[in-house]
């Protein structure tokens, strides 16, 4: 299990009435990157805005989706480990 995992590293975001996207961590198998991305942006709007600001300011990320892809890869590894157990 990854030490920087979403579940072990941070508290869960509060459920929002505007977000009806199911939590991808509740599934038995990994969801696609689009579902994960939509869920992340709906439940972590401050971090999503920070990602876009960093990119707009010429930050380290060359592509807008690289930060989300990194989060998705961590999620996917977590789900693969969950399936193995």
- Helicity level, as a percent range? 40-55%
- Provide the succession of SSEs: HHHH
Task: Flag low-confidence runs.
Answer: 1-5
Overall structural class, as computed from helix and strand content, comes to mainly alpha
Q: Give the overall pLDDT as a whole number.
A: 77
Number of strands: 0
Task: Tell me what portion of residues adopts beta-strand conformation.
Answer: under 5%
Number of domains: 1
Cα end-to-end separation = 11 Å
The major pleated sheet works out as: none
Shape: globular
Radius of gyration: 13 Å
Please count the helical segments: 4
Q: How does this structure look, described?
A:
It is a single chain. With 85 residues, the protein is mainly α. It has one domain. The chain contains four helices and no strands. The chain is globular. The relative contact order is 0.20.
List the helices and strands and how they pair.
Layout: H1 6-9, H2 33-43, H3 45-56, H4 66-84
Q: TL;DR?
A:
The chain has 85 residues and is mainly α. Helices cover 54% and strands 0% of the residues. It has one domain.
Features of the shown structure:
85 residues, mainly alpha, 4 helices, 0% strand
């Amino acid at each position: 299990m990854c030490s920087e995992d979403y579940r072990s590293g941070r508290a869960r975001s509060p459920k929002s009435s505007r977000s009806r996207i199911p939590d991808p961590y509740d599934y038995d198998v990994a969801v696609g990157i689009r579902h994960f991305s939509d869920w992340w942006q709906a439940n972590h709007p401050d971090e999503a805005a920070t990602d876009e600001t960093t990119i707009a300011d010429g930050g380290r990320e060359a592509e807008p989706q690289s930060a989300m892809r990194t989060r998705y890869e961590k999620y996917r590894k977590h789900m693969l480990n969950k399936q193995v157990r």
